[in-house]
Amino acid sequence: MNHPILYLEYLKEKRTIKRLTLLRKSISYTFLLVFFYFLFSVSYTASPSIVILNYLALYTSVSGLIFLKVFEIPRCIQDVLKERDDAKIFQLTEHYRSEILDSLARNLNLFDSKVDYGKLQAEGIIGLFRLDQRLPWSKIGLAYLIVYLFTVLFLCTYLTLDFLETGFSRP
Question: Which keywords does the record carry (predicted)?
Answer without folding.
Answer: Membrane, Transmembrane, Transmembrane helix
